[in-house]
Fold this sequence. Notes:
The structure holds 2 protein chains of 2 kinds. Chain A is an alpha/beta fold. Helices cover 39% and strands 22% of the residues of chain A. In chain A, strand 5 and strand 6 form a beta hairpin. The longest helix of chain A is centred in the last third of the chain and has 20 residues. Classes of the chains: A alpha/beta, B alpha/beta.
Amino acid sequence: MILIFGGVYQGKLEYAIGRFGLTEEDITLCADENATCPTGRKVIGDIEKWILALIKDDKNVLEETEQFINKNRDTIVICTDISCGIVPIDPIMRKWREEVGKFLGLLATNSDEVIRLYCGIPTILKQGI
Amino acid sequence: MRIFISGGCKNGKSTYAQKLAKHQHNSPLYYVATMSSVDSEDDERIIRHKQERAGWGFLTIEQPRNIIEILDKCDPSGSFLLDSLTALLANEMFTPSGKVDEHASERIAYQLSDVLHKIQNIVIVSDYIYSDAMLYDPLTEAYRKSLAYLDRLAAKCCDVVLEAAYTQIIVHKGDHIGEMI
Lengths: 129, 181
């Protein structure tokens, strides 16, 4: 697994497309209404939205995310880092923020490579397990 | 040298950017002020910024909109500090009449490209507003998207790209920054 994370609009998907020569069919983007575990594509993007869908559906996030990792060992996973702002008043948003944080930790531990994007510029934080 | 610096609030970006601008060798040294005051809180912030800059030798140019005009008002061979893209975009996007200009970022991108083409010594400050757990209204989201677009454009055109992280500076692009500080 390869993890690409960073703030919103920092060029994460663009980096993946450029580096791995991907086409549209290789990419799936998650939505916050769909709690089905995404799998079967080279790139799974907006994974934080899937986490929000799990929370909204009252699913066990830890179980679901562990399954996700088992199903996506050879996938490039893109996640928006939402950990650096104000703690949200809305309890669902608060839970979302924490669950995405935990999930990113889990993803990073299980990834062969971890890349952070800032203003379109990649920094490789981890390479090789 | 063209330098882009961003980061979270209260990370010391502006002060660090002032130091970087001061280290550029070409004179005159311009401070491009982009804030346009809307209330007493802004007035206080502007006064605080002016006090912080006093004695640094900056010539202040008020340019809350149309950044391209600095090319006419100033000597392009001087050194510039542009603080900040955040305010510039807010002023261009949210007009005093209450109308929202959805093409603001394209216009700024065009003007900024020209500015960065003609000015060699400039420090540009922006704000990193991309990592919070919020689903924003479409207008706020459009503003974030536009600022990120301008940030990426500036980062592409600049020789050095920095991130301020609580007194620490992360160098994302350009390795000759060490000589300057």
